[in-house]
Amino acid sequence: MDGNSVTTAANLSGRESNVRYRRGVITQFTVGDGMELVYCKDTASAGLLPCELAALLPHCGTFRTIEEHARACCGDQNPTGQAMSQMQARLKELAERGFLISDRQVFETLIEPTVPRSTSVAIRSICFPTCNRVESLERCMQSYISNCRQYGKTNDYVVMDDSPLPEVRSAHRQMLATLRAQHDVNIKYAGWEEKYEFSTRLIKTKELPSDLVEFALFGDEESGLATYGANRNAILLHTIGETIFCTDDDTLCRIAAAPFKADGLLAVSRAYAPRIGPEETWHFPDRAAALNAANFEDSCLLDMHEQFLGKELGTCIAEVARTGLVDLDRTEAQFHNMLASGEGRIRVTLNGILGDCGWPRPLFHIHWQGQSLERLTRDESEYQALRISREFLRVVDRISISDQAPSQGMFLGLDNRDVLPPYLPVGKGEDILFGQVLSKCIYDTYYARLPWALLHDPLEPRSFSSEGMFSPLIEDFFRLIQELAYTLQMDRRLSDPKVRLRILGCHLEEIGRLPAFDFRELVCLRVWQAASEEVRYLEKAIELADESRQFWASDVKAYVRRRRDQLLAREVCMPNDLSERLDRTQVMSIAQQLVCRFGRLLQWWPDIVESARSLRAQGYTLAKPV
User: How far lies 317's CA from each of 132, 216, 273, 581, in Å?
Assistant: First the structure.
């Protein structure tokens, strides 16, 4: 490559002053005499730059005009005219030499793609994991069947039942047979018997380890933890090759548009996203108030997911860009590289949540930002009531695409045509861990959040834990897996999801086989690191809180003090859900065994999936028609 080549980013005449720029994907090499060799992957531009000029590039990470970049780089609220003029000249040089790229270049890539655009794929199945909730499941399915029939959809309905008692499973089958006869729809069901039969076939097809297939589909009896993830794994194996929609059995297909819903699309890279996602939140004192405030509308649920699910990133953005506003201000260079290369796929779509929040403790308000926090803290007495209410609306205000995994999996569209990772078979939080393993192992995964919420409406009354906002450092076992997975950094050049799953699996298995002291030490170090990062984040939020929100800041300070007091406790590294079920002397031993087993499951999961795909091709599926 010619080191003297020049790539012009845009015509920088006066009438182009509104064009905005950000740095490309830059690699820099020190070459002596105060010079650096700089290469931009986006434009394939290379050149020698003085170190002081190259040092400006890290400050140009988001789209801004040359003038806005210059003001930020000057670091002075009121830089002199001469300083601004000199800084703008330097930045224009970087743009002219191809090291800063314009928003117009990005949009030209969108409108005139270099790869074929993908088309919509019909969702084949709506899936319901359930356990001991015959009445709730019937009410739930009636609502989704009604929506699909209203809009002429002919999808299947798949029920995965984790109920331990045969009589409850029989009641589910009878109820589903009645639903099928009433609505003339295809309903498929699997309980323990169907799962056991399928697991036997699965093991024989590819000589898979029987203990791992059983762990994937039935969990671990010794730990005593619930098997929500095992039930979801059964859904993945039954629906391999499909795009699906998965929802909890205590939800209703009542669609509420986001307040102040906007047209267009917002793209957000993880680095610029709020800590707990781009959604906005409205709190309500009770369910009646939440329902009264909701903007319910008649819409086709599956259509809104099919608009994005399974499509390339560039396809989704280009379709919106032709008719509406696309906001890329909070995206990084990697996002634009995905657009240019045709990589990046929407593997998950999700709705917002209206109604019961689904969380065990009233801790959400601690991490709120922006307008969500402003609404919650407008009045102190109202705040004290709302922060202990379980009722809220949490949803994005427009279509939002991000590489940030969601914090809940209550309403998910999943592209299950290729391998997805398994859910952690045991314990709560399996949906959170699933998203993070997905992002780590299938690196070009993106999530499309939709500006419509669905109703979470449990039949049974629910309340927060009596411990209130003071939660253990490791509330659930999945958090331990989550922290240990963070200790692995994988090269993005390893693009094969199966390879990446096996690498992560080997990493966790090795940790699970460490000597007991070393395992406990590693967990403690990760817990301390996570707590430190959270405290830094919260202390910055406290600094930014104005005088009118000091009551909220007091709650955050109390939470931080509690966190600090927990750090040297003996149980700091013990998952609380295991501690509640096991003798304390067993907790870390069982936790370590589960880490090892999940690591082995990740390594074997691609083979398990291919075995299920092979059985499906032969006409054998996990769930059976009722």
Answer: 42, 36, 18, 48
